[in-house]
Amino acid sequence: MEIIGSKIKLRPAVLADRKKIYSWLVRSDLTSSVMGEPNYPDAPLPTLKEFCRDYNSSYFNPSGARAGRNFIIIAGKVDVGTVGYDLFDEDKSRVILDIWLSAKKYCGKGYGSDALMTICEYLNEKYKIRNFYISPSLRNKRAIAAYLKAGFKFTKMQRNTAKKEFGVDICEYDDNIIMRKIL
After folding, report:
1. How big is the chain by its Cα radius of gyration, in Å?
2. Which residues constitute the domain of residue 108?
3. Which are the contacts of 50, defined by CB distance < 8 A and separation ≥ 6?
4. Measured between alpha carbons, how far is 41 from 74 in angstroms, rounded to an integer?
5. Is 135 within 8 Å of 31 (Cβ atoms)?
6. Scanning 45, 64, 69, 171, which has its CA 20 to 30 A from the CA of 87?
7. Residue 28: CB partners within 8 Å, gap ≥ 6?
8. What average pLDDT does this structure show over 20-40?
9. What is the dihedral angle through the alpha carbons of 171, 172, 176, 179, rounded to the nearest 10 degrees?
10. Mapping DSSP to helix (H, G, I), strand (E, B) and coil, where does residue 22 land?
């Protein structure tokens, strides 16, 4: 199954993709713009073990779809990143989204914003999810621009309120902002 966007396709990630996705997060030329020293001392790079704990095997198989799921973003025939959802809550019609690209050369082409719009439309059609949240660092201007382009808006929700609302801390940085898109 592939989910078709206007610039990209989304393919459900499989367990064999997990190490590649991890590498994109911690070993790409984009890593320093989203986590780790020197720009993000408050968000250290996760170890593979920590990453696998956070992105357990259910994110890579269909049985985990109602909890969380990862997808590979494909532009043309090239895997350019990943997008996924977590804290799936059908009762409250909401999910938390996360996305990262594999390299700087894929930034600024609209792949990220298209992937976000595509996953939102898919989750809305398949599960009737209407509320989509994403929580970038205020320092990550490139990501914020892509999220705005995808239809996300800034909220006034603070970290403590979000933690109470979602039951976990969805903020990884000292300066997280919470953005929301409603379909």
Report:
1. 15
2. 3-133
3. none
4. 31
5. no
6. 45
7. 101, 102, 103, 104
8. 96
9. -50
10. helix
Mean pLDDT of 153-174: 86
Q: What is the pLDDT of residues 62-82, one digit of tens each?
A: 877 788 999 999 999 999 999
Q: What is the dihedral of CA 173, 150, 98, 167, to 10 degrees?
A: 70
In a domain? residue 7? yes
Q: What is the Cα–Cα distance from 55 to 116, expressed in whole angstroms?
A: 19
- The count of residues in the chain is 183
Given pLDDT bands bounded at 50, 70 and 90, which one contains residue 87?
A: confident
Domain presence at residue 164: no
CA atoms within 13 A on the CB side of 171: 19
Contact 117, 151 (CB under 8 A): yes
Domain count, the chain: 1
Helices and strands per DSSP (H, E), number in the chain: 5, 8
CB atoms within 10 A of CB 13: 23
Place of tokens 């078709």: 4
Q: Are 146 and 113 in contact (CB under 8 A)?
A: yes
Tokens of 150: 């995808």
Give tens-digit pLDDT for 107-138.
999 999 999 999 999 999 999 999 999 999 99
Domain assignment present for residue 49? The answer is yes
Q: Which residues pair with 81 in a beta bridge?
A: 73, 101
